[in-house]
Specification:
461 residues, alpha/beta, TIM Barrel, two-stranded antiparallel sheet, 14 strands, globular, binds erythose-4-phosphate, binds phosphoenolpyruvate, aromatic amino acid biosynthesis, 3-deoxy-7-phosphoheptulonate synthase activity, cadmium, Aldolase_TIM
Amino acid sequence: MSELIPSLAELHAMPQVQQPTYEDADRLNWVVNRLRELPPLVFAGECDDLRDKIARVANSQAFILQGGDCAETFDGVRADNIKSKLRVLLSMSVVLTYAAQVPVVKVGRIAGQYAKPRSKDTETRGAITLPAYRGDAVNGFDFTPKSRRHDPDRLIQMYNASAATLNLVRAFVTGGFADIRQLHAWNASFVQDSRIEHRYEQMAGEIERALGFMLACGVKDDTLSVVDFYASHEALLLDYEYAMTRIDSRSHRPYDTSGHMVWIGERTRQPNGAQVELLRRVSNPLGIKLGPNTAGTDAIELADRLDPNRVPGRITFIARMGADKVREKLPSIIEAVEQTGRKVAWVCDPMHGNTFETANGYKTRSYAAVVEELNGFFDVHDQLGTWPGGVHVELTGEDVTECLGGAFQLSETDLDARYETACDPRLNRSQSLELAFMIAERLNQSRLLRRVPQRVPDWNE
Ligand SMILES: O=C[C@H](O)[C@H](O)COP(=O)(O)O
Ligand SMILES: C=C(OP(=O)(O)O)C(=O)O
């Protein structure tokens, strides 16, 4: 096996799960070779910048907001859709930055989140059983044999969809849309719930006055107009992530150029597995999902394997324990890792441990359980004296009805109205903003408890 990157054949010879089964090996080969020729989607230097920012999170100096669709779709590559997702994330970020006075590292589940691990390989409707939908990168959502076939050409479509999305995101975040002085505009026709709207508008007014004061005092305004925003996704498909891995000409190290940050899922993080083998070679910042059955030793083993040199900002543990388990399961994992002297970013995913099916057949989550898991996460960190470093959420900029509760008190019957996710239920725009206010309050308390010095947050951090 090469020092830098294993070959694809070597990877495929290793234990692996949740991979597509392609009928046409020659076509897959052609696709992988074509992807290897295509330009990188992100640059190594950008990945390093994000890693440095995450190092500040691990150092209790910043907070990560990571969010976006459960599963992006090729049809969803539309300007309005991308814009509204960005708008929610920017609004949430401004709430967190202002109310908690902590710099926020902004990372989308975007421009690459096209593949899904599934609990079952097949789906049955009536008398018909077909392969499960595994994300647009693998097969189609339509319930027909043709659509559900695993098609390697979809990997090229995934590349194109990611490139188009990233192109627009880059234009939005540098072209004036993300200027913090636009914070009223992000909210226009946004939260219709008067309580949330009022709260956001009140805060936006305060920020506007504070900014006016700073500018009048001569503070330079050039950092206000652009924002650093990063793309992340689960590095699930070995063929794609391998093909996008390139040697950086400056450092001569491999980077997975499919996204700035990639994460490894709860189902695919076997220490001797192919995913870990590929990701341990690349220099991107890495997320590792940890479910409720994780032992402290599992987390340490993964961190040691993926980050033997303890590079600051390299590892983010994303805990997704479930509201009823977080207080019991998380403390021993944090304690075990902290005892090794390792500094990692601790992030809470309050979505994946709280999914259930309603009587009317929808896969959903309740806003109350999401809040409950987050409260547990903050309580655990406050008790241990560790830093609650971030949140990882599935959300959308649309007014969907996929998660129960929240500002509009969505009920099971409301799910019929706009249930549009291709996989798991997402928070809608109002639920996301409401959650940002809740997180900001807890984060501010944690900051005060830990006496993290207050500083003028740089919007661009
Ligand atoms: O997003 C995570 C997983 O892909 C998803 O929860 C799996 O869902 P399933 O249990 O319906 O397969
Ligand atoms: C599959 C996911 O999560 P997990 O690996 O935590 O189940 C996800 O975040 O899309």
